[in-house]
Amino acid sequence: MQEAGGRGMKKLDYIDGLKGMGALMVYLCHFVFAFYYAAYTLLPEHVNTRTGVEILIGKTPLNFFYNGNGAVCLFLVFSGFVLCLSYFRTRDRARLKAGALKRYFRLMPVILAVNLLIFILMYLGLYRNAETAAYTKSIPWFQGFNQFEPKFLSMLSESLLGCFVWGSNDYNGVLWTIPYLFLGALVVYLAAYLVGENPLRYIAYGVMILVAFTTDIYFTGIFLGFVLCDFFSTQERLVSLYRRFRLLPVLAFLLGFYLTSYPSIGTEQPGTIYGILPGAYTVIYHMAGAFLLTAGALGCGWLQWFFSRKPFLYLGKISYSLYLLHFPVIATFSCWFFLEFQESMGYGLTVGIDFALTTVLVLALSALSRRYLEPVGTWLEKMVERCLSWKSNAQKSA
To answer: In Å, what is the CA distance from 145 to each residue of 127, 307, 324, 327?
Structure first.
């Protein structure tokens, strides 16, 4: 990944690192919600430890690391940032058209493969989340997933169309975000194509964000990332000034961390560091926090260095597969292990070992998916490129 800052190009690996962190946060969120639900609800009746430490953690910035809604906002902003990097670097509008036409083929193959896996697991009766939820006190959240008779055609419909247009997510709950990654991306490509070189384009961007904010706030994540990409790629003088005052990016990152870590339960938090914020605006806090976190990282060299380390880069490479694969592993393997061993080993030890094994399994499956499934999308993209190139050459020769 490259940054367009004049003609000199600088690698933006740290954006991939941040994206990987977002995917990891979603995984941690779902594992924590499944086994320590009180860390989300902050209610004593859901506690599974002697001391209720999960509630204490949930009221501090430590909940950032499993804050699922905050992680989704981060993932959307990071994704929006990378969509048009090549366009702002080259000003080649053909790339926007190609990107829009290839977007579906980039996302669909892994979704279809994972949903097919989920269909098989459900058909074999391996989903044990409902049974596990009764033990872990996570009935309101964990019990209801995938508790229906799987049908191949409905799975196929969700994989090929439903999740892209309506956010259908009966088989894989995380697919609710796909319309933002797909339809939101198409809007971004169109905006760049129509006004990407207009001096007044930020007014158009503002209208986009305002409309999204008042209709479906999650679309603002993609749009905010896109605006950051434009700004940091084209406004060299302002970006240089921003980076010169080194405290500004650091403060932006810290404020972003604070807002993104606001407890997802969405209730007021008196007596905590969040006490000054009304609880009614949780998604707004998370979206603003994701924006500020990204802006902070874009302006701070040591943050860029940190998120460019190999563990983050690796997570970035497998982030899409990790995002799609982790929940079926939790609902099957993690639940089986917990139900099999919790009586003999005790709750805490069982969940600890379960988490370690689940993490290894999720990372391994994500790596396999990255190596063997995601290239299918790349192959389909190349086929689309060849078709477009053939059509363009045919028109020219005519």
So the answer is: 9, 34, 15, 10
223 burial type by CB count under 10 A (0-12 exposed, 13-18 middle, 19+ buried): buried
What values do phi and psi take at 137, rounded to 5? 65, 25
Distance between CA atoms of residues 291 and 227, nearest Å:
10
Strand partners, 169: none
Give residue-wise pLDDT tens across range 225-236: 999 999 999 999
- State pTM to two decimals: 0.92
pLDDT class for 7, splitting at 50, 70, 90?
A: very low
- CA distances (Å), origin 129, targets 135, 144, 152: 10, 8, 21
Which long-range contacts does 315-318 make (Cβ < 8 Å, 24+ apart)? 315/17, 315/19, 315/20, 315/21, 315/23, 315/24, 316/13, 316/15, 316/16, 316/17, 316/18, 316/19, 316/20, 317/16, 317/20, 317/370, 318/20, 318/23, 318/363, 318/366, 318/367, 318/369, 318/370
Q: How far is CA 13 from CA 21, 84, 165, in A?
A: 13, 16, 31
Q: Which two tokens stand for residue 144?
A: 């209801």
Q: What are phi and psi of 8, to 5 degrees?
A: -75, 130
- Over residues 272-291, the mean pLDDT reads 95
Structure tokens at 331: 């609902």
- Terminal Cα-to-Cα distance of the chain (whole angstroms): 37
Q: Token pair for residue 271?
A: 């007596």
Of the candidates 375, 289, 363, the one whose C-alpha atom is nearest the C-alpha of residue 323 is: 363
**What beta strand segments (E) does 33-182 contain?**
none
Torsion of CA 162, 165, 171, 177, to 10 degrees: 170
Tell me what the mean pLDDT of segment 112-130 comes to: 98
Task: Report whether 306 contacts 267 (CB < 8 A).
Answer: no
- How many percent of the chain have pLDDT more than 90? 84
CB 188 within 8 A of CB 100: no
